[in-house]
């Protein structure tokens, strides 16, 4: 009997050791196993449209060599001959379309991931990597606008961004059928191809026409904006506001007041955001959370209609 009990004890002990070893091994394997299952610790970075950026820069460098070898800065760009300037605009529009296509993806991803983050399903590390991707693209769009301003100093550089977004929304995956690659030689054949594509797209000026980046008609409703204090964006159901705060801010330092037609955000008693909203919200469906360096406020819309801005008296 004693021998039998001893044997049972040995079996139990060995089983416990094996179980502990397996648990320890699984704990060590968990990060790589999750990655093998497709779960990433950070947001997969979507590459900027490097091919379009490089194509624009190569053409610009070539034109500099032909027309402005000894000129510093970008003042020479607006003085290019019409045919050269038109092709440069075409290349810049291709770059803008690439940026706006990526913006659509990141913006849609961010809305979904924000909902997961607000419910504690994804980590702060993952959410911060989403914000980092947004910042990288924002820097590229600002660089794009500087290039547009150099080509047409008298025009609003935001126009090319609005026009590119309208085209991306209008044509979707078929956008590059409307803006194909022109021949390599930036001469008459290239301009003919560019002119044909621009004319087929509709809504864009033809090569040689004035006001190249000003979109026709009234501007579309704002999808978002930013100030020194915050940035915001919207979809059909919600408005999200990211308010800048010090990185060491605690949740107890923050106070958010929701009203159907107004919003207040305070940090240690100091008012950060205050104003009458551009459209009513549903306070019972509004939430906020603290991320590193920002308070993210989500307003549930009372109506799915686009808001013309964040506040009734526009601050963005």
Automatic annotation (TrEMBL):
<dbReference type="GO" id="GO:0051082">
    <property type="term" value="F:unfolded protein binding"/>
</dbReference>
<protein>
    <submittedName>
        <fullName>Nudcd1 protein</fullName>
    </submittedName>
</protein>
<dbReference type="InterPro" id="IPR008978">
    <property type="entry name" value="HSP20-like_chaperone"/>
</dbReference>
<dbReference type="InterPro" id="IPR037898">
    <property type="entry name" value="NudC_fam"/>
</dbReference>
<feature type="domain" description="CS">
    <location>
        <begin position="225"/>
        <end position="311"/>
    </location>
</feature>
<dbReference type="GO" id="GO:0006457">
    <property type="term" value="P:protein folding"/>
</dbReference>
<feature type="region of interest" description="Disordered">
    <location>
        <begin position="205"/>
        <end position="229"/>
    </location>
</feature>
<keyword id="KW-0963">Cytoplasm</keyword>
<dbReference type="Pfam" id="PF04969">
    <property type="entry name" value="CS"/>
</dbReference>
<dbReference type="GO" id="GO:0005737">
    <property type="term" value="C:cytoplasm"/>
</dbReference>
<dbReference type="InterPro" id="IPR007052">
    <property type="entry name" value="CS_dom"/>
</dbReference>
<feature type="compositionally biased region" description="Pro residues">
    <location>
        <begin position="207"/>
        <end position="222"/>
    </location>
</feature>
């Amino acid at each position: 009997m004693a021998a039998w009990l001893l044997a049972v004890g040995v079996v139990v002990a060995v089983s416990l050791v094996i179980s502990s070893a397996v648990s320890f091994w699984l704990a060590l394997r968990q990060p790589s196993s999750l990655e093998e299952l497709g779960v990433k610790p950070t947001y997969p970075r979507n590459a900027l449209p490097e091919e379009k950026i490089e194509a624009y820069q190569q053409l610009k460098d070539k034109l500099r060599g032909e027309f402005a070898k000894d000129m510093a800065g970008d003042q020479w760009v607006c003085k290019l001959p019409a045919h050269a300037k038109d092709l440069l605009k075409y290349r810049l529009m291709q770059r803008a379309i690439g940026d706006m296509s990526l913006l659509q993806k990141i913006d849609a991803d961010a809305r979904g991931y924000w909902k997961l983050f607000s419910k504690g399903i994804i980590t702060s590390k993952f959410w911060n990597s989403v914000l980092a991707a947004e910042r990288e693209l924002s820097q590229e769009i600002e660089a794009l606008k500087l290039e547009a301003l150099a080509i047409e100093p008298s025009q609003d550089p935001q126009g090319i961004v609005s026009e590119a977004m309208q085209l991306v929304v209008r044509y979707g995956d078929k956008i590059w059928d409307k803006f194909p690659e022109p021949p390599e030689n930036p001469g008459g054949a290239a301009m003919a191809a560019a002119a044909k594509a621009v004319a087929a797209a509709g809504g864009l000026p033809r090569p040689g026409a004035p006001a190249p980046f000003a979109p026709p008609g009234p501007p579309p409703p704002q999808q978002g904006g930013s100030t020194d204090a915050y940035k915001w964006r919207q979809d059909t159901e919600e408005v999200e506001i990211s308010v800048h705060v010090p990185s060491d801010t605690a949740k107890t330092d923050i106070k958010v007041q929701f009203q159907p037609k107004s919003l207040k955000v305070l940090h240690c008693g100091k008012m950060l955001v205050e104003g009458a909203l551009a459209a009513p919200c549903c306070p019972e469906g509004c939430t906020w959370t603290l991320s590193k360096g920002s308070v993210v406020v989500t307003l549930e819309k009372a109506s799915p209609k686009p808001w013309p801005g964040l506040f009734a008296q526009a601050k963005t």
